[in-house]
Write a structure and sequence with these properties.
- Residues 1-11 have a biased composition (Basic and acidic residues).
- GO terms for molecular function: hydrolase activity, acting on carbon-nitrogen (but not peptide) bonds; metal ion binding.
- Keywords: Hydrolase, Membrane, Metal-binding, Transmembrane, Transmembrane helix.
- Residues 12-26 have a biased composition (Acidic residues).
- The protein is rod-shaped.
- The protein has helices at 10-21, 27-36, 55-84, 104-110, 256-266, 276-281, 283-291, 311-329, 345-351, 373-383, 400-415, 423-429; strands at 86-91, 94-99, 121-122, 128-130, 138-141, 144-146, 161-165, 170-171, 174-181, 185-187, 194-199, 204-211, 217-224, 229-234, 243-249, 271-274, 295-298, 335-336, 357-359, 363-364, 388-393, 419-420.
- The strands form five sheets. Strands 15, 16, 17, 20, 21 and 22 form a six-stranded parallel beta sheet that branches.
- It has 440 residues and is of the alpha/beta class.
- Strand 5 and strand 6 form a beta hairpin.
- The protein is built from twelve helices and 22 strands.
- Helix 7 crosses helix 8 (311-329) and helix 10 packs parallel to helix 11.
- The protein has three domains: 81-171, Ubiquitin-like (UB roll) (Roll), CATH 3.10.20.30; 174-233, Single Sheet (Resuscitation-promoting factor rpfb fold), CATH 2.20.230.10; 236-429, Glycoside hydrolase/deacetylase (TIM Barrel, Alpha-Beta Barrel), CATH 3.20.20.
Length: 440
Amino acid sequence: MSHNRDGHTDGDEYDEDLQSLDIDGDDGEDVAAVEEIDFQGSAKPPKRPRRTMGAAATAVVTVLVALVVVALGAGAWWMWRFHWRSVDVNVDGEMVATRADTTIARFLDDHDDFGRARGRLLSLKGKVLDKDGGEPVAVSVNGAAVPAADYGTTTIADAETMTVTPGKDITEAHTSETRTKRYGTDINLNNGPIQVVTQQGEDGQEEVWIGKRSKEEVVHKEIKPAKKLTVQSFAPQPAGKKVIALTFDDGPSQYTGPILDILRQKKVKATFFDLGEEALAYPELERRMVEEGHQVASHSVSHPYMPDMSRDDLRKEILTGFADLEQASGTKTRVLRAPYGAFVVQQWKDAADIVDMNVLWSIDTLDWKRPGTKAIHDEVLKNAYNGAIALMHDGGGDRTQDIEALPGIIDDLRKQGYSFVTIDELCAMGGVPKPAQGAE
C-alpha cells in the first residue's frame, strides 16, 4: 500500500470508507451515509427528456390567442363606436358635434336647452310659483319621442336628428276636501204685494282643491248643486173677473165684532191679520172669523219693527204669533203681514223656512190717521182695480170710522161689479204658485 502525506496508507483510507458505509443493517444511518456520497462530482442524475406540445394543444392556444385579439379589437371598436367617436347631430336644422357617449340630459345642459324654455310650475289659480318647475323641454331623436325620465341614461350615439321643443307648464300638487256650499238667494219683492217662497234654499256640496305650495283654494267640481232660496212677488189679477180683497189689521178688539156683523150681513169674506196677544185676549172672535169663512193670518205677536230684530228674536216672534192664532182659533197658518209692511231681503233669509207668504197691500186707507168716514170710503173706491188689496184696521185704536165706512165701501164696489175674496182665494184665482214650505 502506498503512503500519503499524512502518514496513512491507502489501505487505511479504504478501511475508513468501508466503515462509513455501515452495512450492518441500520437503515436510517445507511440512507444518510448514501446521501452524503459525492464521488467528488463524478456522479450526476440523468436529465429528464423535454416534453413537446401536441398538435391539439397548439390549436387550442392559437384559438384562444385569436379570441383575445378579436375581443380586444371588438372592445376597442365598441369604445370608439359608443364613447370616443364624435357625432354630428342635426338639432332643429343646426349641426352640433359631441361625443357618442353624451347623454341627452348632458347634451341639453351643455347647450342651455338650445334656447327652449322649460315649463313653469303654476299655482291652482295660475300664478307662477317656479319658472323652471314644470316639465323639461321635450326631445325627439330620429323622429321618436324620448321620455323625460330617460334623458339621463339615453345617449345620442345613434342620433342623426334631434328636435327640442319647450317644456309644458304643470300645476302644483294639491289636497282635496268635500265642503258644504251654502245656498244663495233670489229674492224679488218688487212685482206685487204678495210675496211667496217658491223654492226653499238647500245647501250643496263641492270638491275643493287646496294647493300644497300656494295654499290657494279653488272649487274643482260641484258634487251636489245648491238650490237658491227663491222668493217672488205677485200682483194677481184673475182673468175674466173683477175681484178685490178687504183686509183688517191689529185685531181682534172691541171693534172686530161690529165689522164681522157687517161682513156677515153683506155676505162678504175678508182676511184678518191678527196680533197673537190680541187673539189670545179675544179667542171667541178668532173662532167666529173662522166659522164665518174669513181667513185668519198673523200680524206678529206684538207689532214690532222686524228689521231691527235679531234672527233668533224674529223667528221667535213669527212662530209665537202663528202658535197664538192656532191656540185661539184652532186654525194653522203660515201667512204673515209684517208690521208696517217691513219684511225685506234679510228677513226672508232669516225666516223663509217658517213663513209661506208675506202679504202687503195696494190700497192704503190711512184709517189709522182717522181721516174721516168719507176719506176712508173714497180712498178704496178711487183706487180699486181687479186684484186690489185694501188695508183697513179692526184694532190698535179707535176704529169707529172703519165701521161707519165699511157698508158704503161694499155696496159701491158691488155696483162697479166687484166681488170680494180672501187672500188665499185671490192667489188661487190669479195663478200665484203654491208656497214651497220649509222643514220647520
